[in-house]
Records
---
Amino acid sequence: QKEKNPISGIKSQIKNYAEMKEEEIAQLKQMEQYRKEFLANISHELKTPIFATQGFILTLLDGAIDDKKVRDRFLKKAAKSLNSLNILVEDLLTVSKIEAGEISMEFEEFDLQVMIVDVLEQVEQKAEKKNILVTLEVPNDDPIYVDADYNRLKQVVINLVVNGIKYNNKNGFVKVILQVNEDTVSVHVKDNGIGIPLEDQNRLFERFYRVEKSRTKKQGGSGLGLAICKHILERHDTVITLESEEEKGSTFSFDLKLSKEVDNEDSEF
Ligand code: ADP
């Protein structure tokens, strides 16, 4: 019989719907799970600096306020906690705005090297405190033009370099390596720090995910930096990748398209 059996056609269609529903339900359940985890994490992260500040104030009220030295120490600690809280809320706003598509990227053409030098200046003090050498490696002095959002891309590189400093030992290094390919430039941020265990590597870019190791938990941070990086790079049509080995170090990398117009020799005069 050449003609298709209409009943079996309908049956298979019903089966398709049923499967689709199951898939959809699984997806919804997964999203609900993420939402719950997100809320639990956010509450925990917000509570930490709030409780700390509360503790410092209570200690002051308890008598510490009478001793000028002790008072100053606790006031400084309270201010520091409030500062963490502020950074956390700001990061949170950035993530939610980017995820909701509310942040528009402002693309412009610029020399990537200029931006990286700008980053290196900004992180200098932090690096000096741990005697960490932060350097830029480029193939030559030619400008490397890209079409990107200068400030947001700078934020990405700052986050990566600051992590390279934070999760590093004293006297370590962080290298920003620019590698020019035919149509793209690869940006690598390489450190010789504590590294990231294999089992944590694919969850690292989730909001609030932090490696459960005493040394990394001791470092202040919101666990939002890499999530922000991932989103910003997605808006530049690219992805961030990671290679890391515990106790050896980590390299975070992404590619950007080279800007064609300025790359053309005719445009130079
Ligand atoms: P934060 O640094 O605020 O915790 P991030 O999203 O920037 O948040 O990083 C998430 C986690 O990934 C960090 O808590 C740390 O455990 C780990 N991590 C990030 N960068 C590095 C690095 N260069 N070396 C080792 N661990 C890192």
---
Amino acid sequence: TIWPDVEKIRNEFPILQQSINGNPLVYLDNGATTQKPVQVIRAMQEYYTGYNSNVHRGVHTLSQKATSAYEAARHQVAAFIGAHHHEVVFTKGTTDAINLVAAGFRKEFLHEGDEVIISGMEHHSNIVPWQLACEEKKAHLKVIPVTDNGELDMNAYASMLGPRVKIVSVTWISNTLGTINPVKDIINMAHAAGIPVLLDAAQAIAHTPIKVHELNVDFLALSSHKVYGPTGIGILYGKESWLQKLPPYQGGGDMIKHVTFEKTTYAEPPLKFEAGTPAICEAIGFGAAVAYVTQLGIHKIQAYEHQLTEYAIAQLKTIPELRLIGEAKHRAGAISFLVGQHHPSDVGVLLDQQGIAVRTGHHCTQPLMDRFECPGTVRASLALYNTTADIDRLVEGVRKAVTLLG
Ligand code: PMP
């Protein structure tokens, strides 16, 4: 029982209706960025053709219209993740959201000898900001080890939760292995030790329902472009108490209450963290993307993609030269593999020649590649518009690459 309307859905994504190198496009690079449906493209076009104007400042009609649409998008995104709208800060994306929190901890909460826990499967954007903060404060970055099948070693994690740990910052779903981490356990264990948790939900957002209040997570970062919205926008969810405590990230217009040369007072969150003119059109596009996914139903998408993933793994395993990297029990989104002794980029080029878009390389997870002792992988990553036919083309494409590479 495969997603009944997949052809109708595919027709809503104009970019998918094209040929690449003489073959119909098979787009399997959704972990890097997803394609955008007409609903999103239209919402953004309507903004620029109908009511482009700056937000939060003007009394005139267009500015009020732009402000309402920008704030309506905040409400839509908040509802999508089960948050209050005032807990949702618009950022440039996941990277920006993590940097916002890391900068706050660096300034206020991290001291010499303290510890920050991340995991061995983090994207560079959830490694480097913490590394910079730890270097400056002479704090220590601790890394939860990854097991051979690509899961987090939860016993090791339990033993790491000591009194010096100031925050745990881990990914919900690995962009390289597709592993779904046991985030509820990760959060409960940290909270039992009085430690806050940040979840990188960049990959989770398109593949799994998110309810931040049920999870009781302290911070959650994600990007619009991973969930059928535009680039340049994302959010930081923060518990209200944390957003109150966290110092401002950048200074400028929109984030203030009152400015004098002696002393500035800040706006209440979320505006306290939104200095300068925001990405208004992008926020509106993000709202439209979330509305699109809501209308299709994230639970249905999850169930469909789960079937597709199982199918893909079973089919890929029929290729004798193929080795999967990461075989976690719970997984979504990404499937990484190597083919014989061939370099991933050689396989990627041969797939591109057949119109199949995959990603090759380290996927911004170099320490994870070191862990699996490979220079990189070939990664196929799925979205709601992919089909079993796409998977068949991928498998056929890999077989052809094996033959050509010898
Ligand atoms: N974390 C994960 C798990 C990701 O997959 C990505 C994007 N590849 C990021 C963080 C960074 O997201 P962005 O580049 O949109 O800030």
